[in-house]
Amino acid sequence: MAAYDALGDQKGSVVALNPKTGEVLAMVSKPTFNPNNLEEIWDELSQDEETPFLNRATAGLYAPGSTFKVVTAISAIENISDITTRTFQDDGVIYFNDTTSLENYDRIPHGSINLEQAFSVSSNVVFGTLAMELGNDKLKETAEKFYFNKEIPSSTLVLEDSSFPTYKKYEQGNIAQSGIGQSGVLASPMEMALIASTVANDGVMMEPNVVKEVVDPSGNKVSEVESKEIGEVISPETAQILQKYMRTVVTSGTATNANLWNVEVCGKTGTADHDSGDKVPHSWFIGFAPYENPEIAFAVILEEGGNSSRNAAEVAKDMLSNYYGE
Which SS3 state, helix, strand or coil, does residue 294 take? Predict the structure, then answer.
């Protein structure tokens, strides 16, 4: 209910997981409907262009935007030596040719920055450059470790497959865009919550589940769904670097509005263009809390919430405030 209330009247989804067990703590999709009078409202709902029958949490596929920079950063750390100590020159834009470029938000140049700073300010220039340096094959390989282009294992959920595209070496613009979660990259809110959960859990991805146990009418336990590891997706060392980077995003980067006074929140913001960029972008926020010994990991998307007075980070903050009783 806290996640449902935090989402308010906005279209979108909230997913929250226990990173240690994979237990689904919250899973909200809006717009929604009341199933108690489904027969009466079936025709109306079936024709509703807002698609209330679509479970956006598990079957909604969106460009993840800059939240995907978590995956790009991981790929760079795993594949490029000394990347965490390198200095980048961010002049606000990369030109591919006379007609194609990749820009930071408002073309803001961030100057001479390292990887953590680039992550904190969400530099498109740096992460587009990293994607080109990695190449499509290596970045795709890292994405597929997180179950892009694959079926995510779950004994209690059916999840739509997220996708990461294949590009030729000469498609540098598309490759750069894929590094910032655009250009054919599509992910469900559950996928992005699992990425945050895996980072929070020192690199181990847990199977997401909505059922803990089955009981009979008398309340006696019939069966139990045990927590299962999907596997170690990244090393604990890499996960801990990303944990630190995601904490910096909230303390001094693009998500200071997600700060809570009594809990150290960690996260990554995202603004995702869609439909050829002619619509208001989606607003994303993924993350976990607290920084030490995380208890909750989450993903929030607000459809066309990019210009809203209330963005995805603030929705997450409200949900976390309820979770921690602030």
Answer: coil
Query: Beta strands 101-103 and 111-113: pairing type?
Result: unpaired
Closest by Cα among 185, 218, 178, 239 to 19? 239
Q: For 23-41, how does the pLDDT look when each residue is reduced to its tens digit (9 = 90+)?
A: 999 999 999 888 888 888 8
Contacts of 139 (CB under 8 A, 6+ apart): 71, 72, 75, 131, 164, 175, 178, 179
For residue 237, give Cα distances in angstroms to 76, 129, 210, 272.
14, 24, 30, 29
Look at residue 181 and give its three-state secondary structure: coil
In the block, tokens 């910096």 appear at 248
Q: Are 247 and 291 in contact (CB under 8 A)?
A: yes
Local confidence band at 308 (pLDDT 50, 70, 90 cut-offs): low
- Pinpoint the alpha helices (H) of 48-123: 56-59, 69-79, 115-121
Q: What is the mean pLDDT of residues 180-196?
A: 98
Strand ranges (E), the chain: 12-17, 24-30, 88-90, 93-95, 101-103, 111-113, 204-206, 213-215, 221-224, 229-232, 266-272, 282-289, 296-302
Residues 6+ apart with CB under 8 A from 164: 139, 140, 143, 144, 148, 149, 178, 184, 185
> Cβ distance 178 to 131 under 8 Å?
yes
Please name the residue that has the structure tokens 């140049």: 109
**Nearest in space to 245 (alpha carbons), one of 125, 76, 80:** 76
